[in-house]
TrEMBL record:
Low complexity biased stretches: 105-118
Protein name, UniProt field: Magnesium transporter
Source organism of this protein record: Saccharum spontaneum (Wild sugarcane)
Localization per record: Membrane
Lineage of the species this protein comes from: Eukaryota, Viridiplantae, Streptophyta, Embryophyta, Tracheophyta
GO molecular function, one term: magnesium ion transmembrane transporter activity
KW Amino-acid biosynthesis (keyword) present: no
InterPro entries on file: MRS2-like
Keyword tags: Ion transport, Magnesium, Membrane, Transmembrane, Transmembrane helix, Transport
UniProt region (Disordered), positions on chain: 100-125, 269-290
Family: Belongs to the CorA metal ion transporter (MIT) (TC 1.A.35.5) family.
């Protein structure tokens, strides 16, 4: 099954060589997704694709689509539905947010004096802005947008949205197994407390072995998630560093950022102009003296 970044999902039949040409992956990476082979949980980042093998989730993620080799598995159906829903919802939310941002960009608070004839329009636009902002902040369905403190909006790329769904599905699978194990563990412990026997001890031992196995799988998923966060953080820090270096190297850009100084100079200039208009006799005397 193929889940594109935009549009409905579709079922395609593709061989190994076709998938390799489509994703740029070598054959050894595709073996990670083979259901007949036992591979540990892993996330492989390659030049053109991300290979995901987390619990029941096996996927190939590119910048434009997600390839699901075992989409016919009944246990995999929920993940497919979640992925389709998230991709469609993210695309709709992204378009709506960008439209709202374009509409609001015309309403910007200005430090400069506003003519009296335009004050009525300014009040009306301010009311509209205050009505829109609470609506945006109260919205709970914004999975693909991260709003920074400066108000800028960072759109999460498609591949990371798809990877987020993969991680959520893996965590949900582990949570369900843990809940099932918990329902078996407490009665077994209670029974062992009331009656110590070989059968009860063996039952508790098996539950403990399953618990240790689940803990190991959880650690693998958590480590992959932490690695992903580390990569994203380093990428963001690198972008910030490059931008700061660019600003520091360009003196004109640095000078343009002194907004307070420019505003002060403008206020001084306006004050001087008002003095000349209010006291024309002083100006004439100055001219005679000169």
């Amino acid at each position: 099954m193929v889940v594109p970044a935009s549009g409905p999902a579709r079922v395609e039949e593709a061989g190994k060589h076709a998938v390799m040409a489509r994703t740029g992956l070598p054959a050894r990476d595709l073996r990670v997704l083979d259901p007949l082979l036992s591979y540990p949980s892993t996330i492989l980042g390659r030049e053109r694709a991300i290979v995901v093998n987390l619990e029941r989730v096996k996927a190939l993620i590119t910048a434009a689509e997600v390839l699901l080799p075992n989409s016919k598995d009944p246990a995999f159906a929920r993940f497919v539905r979640d992925l389709q829903t998230r991709v469609l919802a993210s695309s709709s939310d992204q378009a709506a947010e960008l439209t709202d941002m374009e509409g609001e960009s015309s309403v910007v608070a200005s430090p400069f004096p506003v003519p009296s004839s335009s004050k009525g329009h300014e009040v009306e636009m301010t009311k509209k802005t205050t009505a829109v902002v609470p609506e945006m902040t109260s919205s709970s369905s914004m999975p693909n947008l991260a709003i920074a403190k400066d108000g800028n909006t960072k759109v999460l790329p498609f591949e990371f949205r798809a990877l987020e769904v993969c991680l959520e599905s893996a965590c949900r699978s582990l949570e369900e197994e843990t809940s099932t194990l918990e329902q078996e563990a407490y009665p077994a412990l209670d029974e062992l407390t009331s009656k110590i026997s070989t059968l009860n001890l063996e039952r508790v031992r098996q539950i403990k072995s399953r618990l240790v196995a689940i803990s190991g799988r959880v650690q693998k998923v958590v480590s992959k998630f932490i690695d992903l966060l580390r990569v994203n953080l380093l990428s963001d820090l690198s972008m910030v560093r490059d931008e700061l270096e660019h600003l520091l190297d360009d003196e004109m850009d640095m000078a343009e950022m002194y907004l307070t100084e420019k505003l002060t100079q403008q206020e001084i200039s306006e004050a001087s102009s008002r003095v000349e208009v209010d006291d024309p006799s002083q100006t004439e005397e100055d001219r005679q003296v000169s």
